[in-house]
Design goal:
Layout lengths: L18 H15 L4 H15 L2 E9 L5 E4 L10 E4 L3 H9 L3 E3 L11 H6 L6 E7 L5 E10 L6 H45 L4 H15 L2 E10 L4 E4 L2 E2 L7 E4 L3 H9 L3 E3 L11 H6 L6 E7 L5 E10 L6 H40 L3 E5 L5 E4 L1 H7 L11 H4 L5 H13 L3 E10 L2 E13 L5 E10 L1 H13 L2 H9 L8 E12 L2 H30 L3 E6 L2 E6 L8 H25 L7 E17 L2 E7 L1 H16 L3 E4 H4 L8 E8 L7 E6 L11 H16 L3 H14 L4 H15 L9 E3 L4
Parallel strand pairs: 22-24, 25-27
Antiparallel strand pairs: 1-2, 1-6, 2-3, 4-5, 5-6, 7-8, 7-9, 7-13, 8-10, 11-12, 12-13, 14-15, 14-18, 16-17, 17-18, 19-21, 19-22, 20-21, 22-23, 24-26, 25-26
């Protein structure tokens, strides 16, 4: 970097030789030698030289032996900043390499001139003198420049004078450079020892890695550094911190890959001045981070036994590639901190094991309590605190005999039994009391012993089964108690969500709004309670599960969560039983002068999804899917067809029993495109409610066949014959109306007898 100084005018020596010149150079030597630091000597030399040749500014570059760069740290004028240039760039670089002085009258016209220094300083160079700085033995240690002659042009005499001055002062400059390097080395050594001491005091792996990387980055003047440790279990190199990477994150890769892998496997250092020219370098990480790697220094981390335990990698030394001195310093540093690394890694492994065990205990749904040899409670996990309904401070540190007292005293008897017999003790479905609430538990007490078979204390494992008992009680309201037992025994997996084939039953009271208006709120609730009691009994007797009440509607499922071989038959039998129970219920209501109730039932078999659905605060075990929707559509269709119970062909085709069923239509329900055959179940009818049943069904079947063949007149005759035997057969009435409609408005030829439902 150029050193510039604007100087006051001084009287310059007029003779190139003789007493005047000798006196001038002697005075120069005295002035420079009187100063202590390299910066002061550089500044004084540039000041005198600039005045001697009557220049506006001066620059003096010295060679950096480590990087090969030319640098200047003394800034003259208002600009004070170190500038570095490569030793073959610009006029200074040309002079340094050629060893020849030069006069340039028009700097910007010279192709060798480097304008970047002017751009940095804001100073415009017009003309310049430039001469190599030689020692008395002829070694070139730098370059001196004088910029912009105040009057006239630079002459050869000016160049000779500048050369003589720099040569005279070179011995003092060289000695100052040596002293500075020694001082820097001393400071680096002190800093090295300080950092090693500080790092060695850290035991936690994460902070230790951070300190090491901070130290290495600063020590080698690099942009980024990373320390990789070897994971012997996975044969991977990993790090928890990358200096310059921003947020902490773990990086892992096989310990044979990349530059770091090569260093780890070989145990030798690698110094790469140009990363992208080395085939071992993997540029993919640069692409991920947006960082551009120029130079790499990577050394193995070796422990006291000579085993390679990791790799330290430093990237992009500022000012040029990494040197042999950098490599030696990094090796010395890693050797010093390897013991601390191993200790921190061991501490980290122990801490991870401890955290793992604690995490296991905290994630357990069962309470775990440990007692020491004196019967004092040492630990209690979250599940235990939840069961005990108290804070950790109220449990840990307490004597077990005092904590498990009163109604829980029996537990201490089990603990004493285990301490005497040295074997585990199990108590099933016991009762304890905490916070005034009774808790049902399964209890296991076992001794704690070390690997040397010495007694350490006692462990108590408490399983809270209160919720399971409550769930069983609740589920028994929705399904047969034996089914609830089987469901709970199957575990939570079956409740988590599964896809299966099941039969869904929907029922709904007809014209319920009118009923509620007549009965009022209290009468309505009483009616529903009586009605639901009868209906749920019919469902549970067939092994069905009550899914939910939807107002006055009932939704039940057969085949989930636990399937049967005959779930379709169970659903149909349950529907028949419900209609028969309703008939008996209506007889009682009629005897007391109360309004009759009618209902419709829809049954469909299909693939559904079942499981616990809802929010964390409120969940219900239910079923969803198209199969559920079709059952609901069939229940609603009972109104249109004047029927009591409709089933789909999915259910009809899988029935094993024999029932009185007639096909009534081929429909496309709202929201679907494929036609579905639907059937009416008639087994619940008595002779009074459906007289001449077989004859009516025969006439209806004949009418349906003629209807689908578009023989409207013949179909009407068949349906009318059915009505003659049973005037209340609403389906026959419906088909008479349809046939008359189609007589006037014939359907398309590809009609196929399909009826499209326009409402749900």
């Amino acid at each position: 970097m150029a050193t510039h100084k604007r100087t006051a005018r001084k009287k310059s020596p007029r003779a190139a030789s003789g007493d005047g010149m000798a006196e001038f150079l002697l005075d120069l030597s005295h002035q420079v030698a009187a100063l202590q630091t390299l910066d002061e000597r550089l500044e004084k030399l540039v000041e005198i030289a600039s005045g001697a040749v009557n220049a506006e500014r001066g620059s003096l570059f010295l060679r950096d032996g480590l990087t090969g760069e030319l640098y200047s740290r003394v800034a003259l004028g208002n600009y004070r900043r170190e500038i570095r240039v490569v030793n073959d760039k610009g006029i200074a670089g040309w002079v340094f390499n050629s060893g020849k002085g030069i006069i340039v009258h028009d700097a910007y016209a010279d192709e060798r001139f480097d304008r970047s220094v002017d751009e940095k300083t804001g100073f415009q160079t017009k003309s310049l003198l430039c001469t190599p700085v030689r020692t008395f033995r002829g070694e070139i240690i730098g370059v001196a420049q004088a910029l912009n002659k105040r009057r006239g042009r630079f002459t050869k005499r000016d160049l000779s004078l500048l050369d003589a001055m720099t040569t005279q002062a070179s011995v003092f400059l060289q000695s100052a450079m040596i002293l500075e390097r020694m001082e820097r080395a001393r400071e680096q050594e002190a800093e090295f020892l300080r950092v090693v001491s500080e790092v060695s005091s850290e035991i936690q792996l994460g902070p230790l890695l951070q300190k090491i990387m901070d130290a290495v980055t600063k020590m080698l003047n690099s942009e980024r550094s990373t320390l990789f440790l070897n994971d012997e279990k996975s044969d991977e190199l990993y790090t928890e911190i990358g200096q310059g990477l921003g947020a902490t994150r773990e990086i892992r890769f096989p310990n044979k890959l990349g530059i770091a892998g090569a260093v780890f496997q070989s145990g030798t250092s690698i110094n790469i001045p140009y990363a992208y020219a080395d085939l071992r370098f993997n540029p993919s990480f640069d692409k991920q981070t947006g960082f551009f790697t120029r130079s790499i220094l990577s050394v193995p981390v070796v422990n006291k036994d000579g085993k390679t335990i990791g790799v330290t990698q430093v990237l992009n030394r500022r000012g040029g590639p990494f040197t042999d001195e950098d490599e030696a310093r990094l090796k010395a540093f890693t050797a010093q901190i390897s013991i601390g690394l191993e200790n921190a890694k061991l501490f980290d492994d122990v801490q991870n094991s401890k955290n793992y065990i604690e995490s296991v205990l905290e994630s357990m749904t069962n309470g775990v309590v440990t007692l020491d040899e004196d019967g004092k409670i040492v630990t209690c996990n979250v599940a235990g605190l939840r069961i005990f309904r108290c804070h950790v401070s109220e449990v840990v540190g307490q004597l077990a005999g005092e904590f498990f007292s009163g109604p829980n005293q029996w537990l201490m008897e089990r603990v004493q039994h285990v301490e005497t017999d040295h074997g585990a003790d199990v108590t099933v479905d016991a009762e304890m009391e905490f916070g005034g609430e009774k808790v049902s538990v399964n209890l296991t007490v076992m001794p704690l012993v070390s690997t040397r078979d010495t007694k350490l204390g006692t462990m108590i494992l408490i399983e809270d089964i209160s919720n399971e008992k409550r769930v069983k009680s609740t589920m028994s309201r929705y399904m047969d108690p034996s089914l609830a037992d089987r469901l709970l025994a199957s575990g939570e997996e079956i409740l988590g969500g599964q896809s299966s084939v099941a039969t869904v039953l929907f029922s709904d009271i007809r014209r319920f709004t009118t009923v509620t208006e007549e009965l009022g709120p209290q009468g309505t609730v009483q009616l529903l309670n009586e009605y639901f009691t009868l209906m749920v009994d019919c469902i549970q007797k067939e092994g069905g599960m009550l899914d939910k009440f939807i107002g006055d509607a009932i939704m039940a499922v057969f085949g989930t969560p636990l399937p049967h071989d005959d779930d379709e038959d169970r659903a149909v039998r349950a529907g028949i039983a419900m209609l028969r129970a309703l008939a008996a219920f209506n007889d009682q209501r009629k005897a007391h002068g109360k309004k009759q109730i009618e209902m419709g039932i829809g049954v469909n078999t299909d693939e559904i999804v079942s499981g616990n659905i809802g929010s964390p605060k409120r969940m219900d075990y239910t079923v969803i899917g198209d199969g559920v929707n079709l059952a609901s559509r069939l229940e609603s269709a009972c109104k249109q067809y004047g029927t009591w119970m409709l089933i789909s062909d999915n259910t009809y085709s899988k029935l094993r029993g024999i029932y009185q069923i007639r096909e009534i239509d081929l429909v496309i329900v709202k929201g679907k495109t494929r036609p579905v055959s639907i059937y009416e179940v008639l087994d619940f009818h008595s002779e009074a409610s459906f007289p001449s049943r077989m004859e009516v069904l025969n006439h209806f079947k004949a009418g349906l066949e003629r209807y689908r063949a578009s023989k409207w007149a013949a179909a009407i005759r068949s349906f009318q014959q059915a009505l003659a035997l049973h005037a209340e057969d609403q389906i026959s009435k419906l088909y008479v109306e349809r046939c008359k409609h189609y007589q006037k408005n014939p359907p398309p030829k590809d009609w196929g007898g399909v009826w499209t439902m326009t409402s749900k």
